[in-house]
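Colleagues,

For the teaching module next term, I've prepared a clean inverse folding example: a structure given as tokens, and then the sequence designed for it. I'd like students to try predicting residues themselves before seeing the answer, so please don't circulate the second half yet.
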């Protein structure tokens, strides 16, 4: 996958007084870019960015690479989105001066984002001629690296570099998004920002991002519970209102405890409905200090919940049992029959109750 640069602009962002300022260093066309120091610095960065894997619905909310989609009002086209127009103008620039003008506008907007750091900002228009006539737009940001030194001569030995950048933790935007080689999504772009600061999300105020799996699951579960309340309590408005308040509090709570509201059959039905749409939905829970990670599809098949007196019991079933590295005597166990385990738990519960009478 070889990209051919059409135009590329290089800016430097520096702190000045109480804010940030930027300075344009150079804008090159494709001929001037070939063999330049900038080409040597970027290397195969365009191809790496295009090939970087991204999940449409990631397993975590905090992921470095995301797919963004331009926001428009219903029935309106892409041209009504200011962020799309910014990329479209960069993409269609036919001269070096036009590209510099549009890149300058982007740089001006970028330094207004919160917590932006000093560094190099690079904008590029690059073609993939094997597949497309229209170019891609890349926006790349490299922060200045402190405490980088180079050896100069015997007398000074070490000399601190005033400004140093590298491509290792480069933040980048690619527009349009290419889900597969030879396929483009004009409504979507890909951002990569390996840091907690959301510079690009601040810049792209009219772009929305796909929900993560946990967000998706939360949204769908709340909808299912809402439907259940509507169907079962329609004739009992006071009870319905109380249940809806409980649902709102539960959905917003950070502390996720077993609610003990639904029968196992109803939970199984809801779980199956969600798994049919997203087979890889995860399920993680803690029993006291023990953490168990699995899939929602395991519920009722390999993971079972029960009550034993006032204690919760989790039954895990499977055809094999493996241990992490590190020898323990538990690995030598000859497992008991489950009825024997339940009988032992019953004896221990009875002893605890007898002890509580004194």
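(Answer key — instructors only)
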């Amino acid at each position: 996958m070889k990209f051919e640069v059409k135009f590329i602009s290089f800016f430097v962002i520096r702190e000045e007084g109480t804010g940030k300022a930027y300075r344009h260093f150079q804008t090159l066309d494709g001929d001037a870019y070939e063999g330049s120091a900038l080409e040597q610095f970027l290397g195969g960065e365009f191809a790496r960015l295009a090939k970087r894997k991204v999940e449409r619905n990631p397993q975590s909310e905090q992921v470095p690479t995301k797919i963004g989609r331009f926001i428009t009002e219903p029935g309106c086209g892409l041209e009504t989105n200011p962020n799309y127009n910014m990329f479209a103008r960069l993409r269609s620039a036919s001269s070096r001066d036009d590209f510099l003008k549009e890149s300058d506008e982007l740089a001006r907007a970028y330094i207004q984002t919160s917590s932006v750091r000093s560094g190099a900002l690079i904008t590029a228009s690059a073609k993939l001629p094997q597949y497309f006539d229209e170019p891609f737009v890349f926006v790349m940001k490299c922060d200045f690296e402190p405490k980088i030194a180079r050896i100069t001569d015997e007398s000074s030995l070490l000399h601190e570099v005033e400004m140093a950048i590298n491509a290792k933790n480069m933040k980048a935007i690619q527009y349009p998004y290419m889900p597969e080689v030879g396929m483009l999504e004009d409504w979507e772009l890909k951002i990569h920002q390996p840091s907690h600061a959301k510079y690009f999300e601040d810049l792209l105020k009219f772009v929305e991002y796909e929900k993560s799996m946990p967000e998706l699951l939360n949204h769908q579960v709340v909808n299912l519970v809402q439907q259940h309340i509507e169907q079962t309590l329609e004739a009992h408005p006071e009870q319905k209102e109380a249940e809806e308040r409980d649902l709102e509090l539960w959905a917003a709570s950070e502390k996720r405890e077993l609610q003990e509201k639904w029968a196992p059959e109803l939970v199984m039905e809801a779980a199956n409905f969600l798994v049919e749409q997203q087979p890889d939905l995860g399920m993680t829970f803690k029993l006291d200090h023990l953490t168990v990670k699995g899939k929602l599809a395991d519920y009722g098949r390999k993971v079972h919940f029960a009550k034993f007196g006032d204690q919760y019991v989790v039954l895990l079933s499977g055809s094999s049992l493996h241990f992490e590295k590190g020898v323990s005597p538990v690995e030598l166990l000859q497992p008991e029959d489950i009825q024997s385990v339940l009988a032992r738990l019953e004896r221990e519960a009875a002893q605890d109750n007898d002890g509580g009478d004194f």
